[in-house]
Amino acid sequence: MAAAEPHDEHRPPVPEGLIARLRADPLRAPETIALAAGEHHAPAAAAWLAAKRSRYAHDAADLARMAKKRHATFARVGGAATGLGGALTIIPDLAALAWIQSRMVFFIAAAYGYDPHDPMRPAELLVLQEIYADPVEARAALDGAGRPIAAAYADKRMSKDEALVRKLASFVGRRAANRLAGRLIPGVAVVVNAVSNERDTRALADRTIAFYGG
């Protein structure tokens, strides 16, 4: 199990080897991210919640808003910093945003009293990112049962990296997918990344708060 992150001060790095795994099977990128999120973000979310509650008497809604604000900032600042590379860095840029957003979902779930280690959390992440309509279906795909998005990459019309860019852009939000061209231009991508990353992350936070907070 991954070590817990005791503080919430720094943008969470994408785990070593995750991008290589995404490139190996691009059409299964959402499931790969969700499973990695369960491994890494669950202990971090539990540690964050314990630290917050040991110092202050925050209620669930306050904690959820904290998680939303912090991760939206991570998304904005990270988008501006990584936008300089344009097409050369778009896969790491999108993977970093997916990682920030997935972490936020686990933190908000923990804020509302849901066990971040529960195996349904990765499935719910896929539903909140609008990859699946139902957590049960999503969990079945994660377990290798049911109908996965794709068993293997077989589309010869585009490279694996092109397929991965499209899949990651779809995963992280509508603005990212709609403004994909702007993300490919160095310099222009600084503004596009910063604005769209934050807006998509805030929109995901609102869906997550509604899902877990009722």
Q: Can you write the helix and strand succession as a string?
A: HHHHHHHHHH
Strands, total number: 0
User: Beta fraction of the residues?
Assistant: under 5%
| Tertiary shape | globular
Helix and strand content put the structural class at: mainly alpha
Number of helices: 10
Biggest β-sheet strands, sense, barrel: none
What integer value in Å does the Rg equal?
A: 16 Å
Low-pLDDT ranges: 1-6, 146-151
- What level of helicity do the residues show? 55-70%
- Mean pLDDT figure: 83
Could you give the distance between the termini? 30 Å
Q: Quickly count the domains.
A: 1
What's the short version?
The chain is mainly α. It contains 10 helices and no strands.
Plain-language structure description:
The two termini are 30 Å apart. The chain has 214 residues and is mainly alpha-helical. Helix 2 packs across helix 4. The protein has helices at 18-24, 29-55, 60-82, 90-111, 120-128, 135-142, 160-172, 174-178, 180-183, 188-213. It is globular and about 55 Å long. Residues 1-6 and 146-151 have low confidence and may be disordered. The protein has one domain.
Layout of SSEs?
Elements: H1 18-24, H2 29-55, H3 60-82, H4 90-111, H5 120-128, H6 135-142, H7 160-172, H8 174-178, H9 180-183, H10 188-213
Please give a handful of descriptors for the protein shown.
mainly alpha; disordered N terminus; 214 residues; globular
